[in-house]
Amino acid sequence: MSRLSAGKTLLLLGVLVVVIMVGLHFSADDTDELTPFESTTRDVLSPVQRLVTVVGGKISDVVTFPARLYKVSEHNRQLEQQVVELQGKLSSYNEIRSENIRLKEQLEFKTSLADQMNTEAAEVIGRAADNWFGSAIINKGSASGIRRDMAVITPAGLVGRVTNVSDHTAEVLLITDPRSGVGCLVQENRAPGIVEGVSGGRGVVNMMHIPSDLAPKKGNRIVTSGFGSVFPKGIPVGTVRETRREESGLFKMAVLETFVDFNRLEEVLVVTSTNPDSAT
Asked: What is the pTM of this model?
């Protein structure tokens, strides 16, 4: 060991001894008065004591930092989990709220039609991916009184008619399918015509065979005519978007915007019976 290192060691030991002796003296003395030596020693050692306190605090911070960092990380993870759970609950609440609004509208509509027709509420449980605007499957069948060729509606308007039935399900041919044909009237001028679906029309329907002298105007309302035994009279179908002449040149045709949003068809009403005397 070099002389310099030995000297530093002795100096540190000396300081340690002095500190210990002073500490013992302070702890052993019960008097309130400090001796000159005690006062001088305290004044001399106060910077060292302050330095030791600061360094000790920093060391404590360094030692405890990993634990505090882990606690913060764990707390953040818990908060993130709570956010995910709250977002899920909010989504469920919004879905339930939307469903309640739709069902309330459906109930009010059903009540308003009580003197005109009887209906059975049903949910849409299936749509064909390759023919989205062609047909839909509902969760009510013959066990609920559903029969073939019953009209299907919503509070917004006409949806289609039942084409086949099982005990607990039924298939509905939508008015947007090219195979569908519905006798209708222009509400404003009573012009007759047939509403047909358009192949690949993404929900578009046309009113065909309108007399040329009774061509409807843009915005005119189209309702069912009640001709035949399937669709009751006066059910809203849509509004006229544009009118043009048919290829034969003998009649006019109108492109309609349906009242029912067939992209978001979730609940429907099946018309199980009607009172013709109350129909409008």
From this structure: 0.63
